[in-house]
Amino acid sequence: MIDLPGMAALWDALPQARMVGGAVRDMLAGREVADVDFAVPLSPQEVIARVRAAGLKAVPTGLAHGTVTVVACGRGFEVTSLRRDVATDGRHAVVEFTDDWEMDASRRDFTINAMSATRDGAVFDYFGGREDLAAGRVRFVGEAGRRIAEDYLRILRFFRFFARYGRGAPDAQAVAAIVALREGVRSLSAERVWSEVKQILRADDPRAVVALMRETGVLELVLPQADEARLAGMVARGAPVDELLRVAALLRGDAGLFAQRWRLSGAEQVRLAALMVPDALAPDADDAALRRALAEVPGEILIGRSWLGQDDRLGWDDLRARIAAMARPVFPVQGRDVVALGVPPGPGVGEVLDAVRRWWMAGGCVADARACLGRARAALDGDRLRFAQPGGPKA
């Protein structure tokens, strides 16, 4: 049974509560459980009152949907009142509260996510989720088409859960409903789509689920003309589980347009663009070439590019190990050093730095500050009058 810090205090305050959703599913599957959500046959106002009476903190994080975050022992737990749908439009639902556990479970997406468990470990399974979990089946609760029409994000969630829990052939009713309703994905917000795509690509081996997305026509909606063969080859060679690296493998189009469409974070955009730059490093590159590459690009990016560009030549694993073990060279001269040599502040400082850095790079990035400054002095000695002019060097 799961026993995270704070759970006992929450259950003391809300003895009617049950664990729901992913925590129950992963507990039964023998997987690690990091977060636990609860449901309760009480209104949000009742939850808040009982929690605060027990000396715990209650944060009304989503009252319209019945969710209160209970903070116990420094950990937050989402506690949601049992609900039934009044109206849905494929993206949002209008709900009202109930005390009927089976009705609440009936509005969940998949049978494996519709189970609940009490404090003493009794599991309530109204739709065969436990059997489906054991068999590796990802099956919608009730009619697949109806569940999808309530929220089109469930199309992508199906692929996410199939990648993580599915075995064998996918549920035929689910696949048929996805094919019929796949255009609903276009109505979803970019943020929701990208969140699910990332989680799909975090699967240990996403090849089968990506192929299923293509067969159902969903892959074309999120990653047009995806290069499945490139992804498959990279996964087969043992590349790390890295959703952005896998997007870079699949993506044939413009990384910038993809990032804009799905509203990737700034850090994700920068990393994806860097990964997709063709890399000239070969498996037999010498140390000087590696140092030059590392001076320009972080090792993590170079290693990612090596997975994307790997071919049948030998030595790629050794190349990655050498990159990981090598310290990143740092150009040892700064602008103030050049000014100290007599170059007036301004564009001339940058020109000297660029020239010396090119020399440093050509030599394999091993020259120290003294050698680099000596190079700068030698260059300045031949052009002292030009650098002494108020405007600095002329272009």
UniProtKB/TrEMBL annotation:
<keyword id="KW-0548">Nucleotidyltransferase</keyword>
<protein>
    <submittedName>
        <fullName>Cytidine(C)-cytidine(C)-adenosine (A)]-adding enzyme</fullName>
    </submittedName>
</protein>
<keyword id="KW-0694">RNA-binding</keyword>
<dbReference type="InterPro" id="IPR032828">
    <property type="entry name" value="PolyA_RNA-bd"/>
</dbReference>
<keyword id="KW-0819">tRNA processing</keyword>
<keyword id="KW-0479">Metal-binding</keyword>
<dbReference type="InterPro" id="IPR050264">
    <property type="entry name" value="Bact_CCA-adding_enz_type3_sf"/>
</dbReference>
<feature type="domain" description="Poly A polymerase head">
    <location>
        <begin position="17"/>
        <end position="139"/>
    </location>
</feature>
<dbReference type="Pfam" id="PF12627">
    <property type="entry name" value="PolyA_pol_RNAbd"/>
</dbReference>
<keyword id="KW-0547">Nucleotide-binding</keyword>
<keyword id="KW-0460">Magnesium</keyword>
<comment type="similarity">
    <text>Belongs to the tRNA nucleotidyltransferase/poly(A) polymerase family.</text>
</comment>
<dbReference type="InterPro" id="IPR002646">
    <property type="entry name" value="PolA_pol_head_dom"/>
</dbReference>
<keyword id="KW-0808">Transferase</keyword>
<dbReference type="Pfam" id="PF01743">
    <property type="entry name" value="PolyA_pol"/>
</dbReference>
<feature type="domain" description="tRNA nucleotidyltransferase/poly(A) polymerase RNA and SrmB- binding">
    <location>
        <begin position="172"/>
        <end position="228"/>
    </location>
</feature>
<dbReference type="InterPro" id="IPR043519">
    <property type="entry name" value="NT_sf"/>
</dbReference>
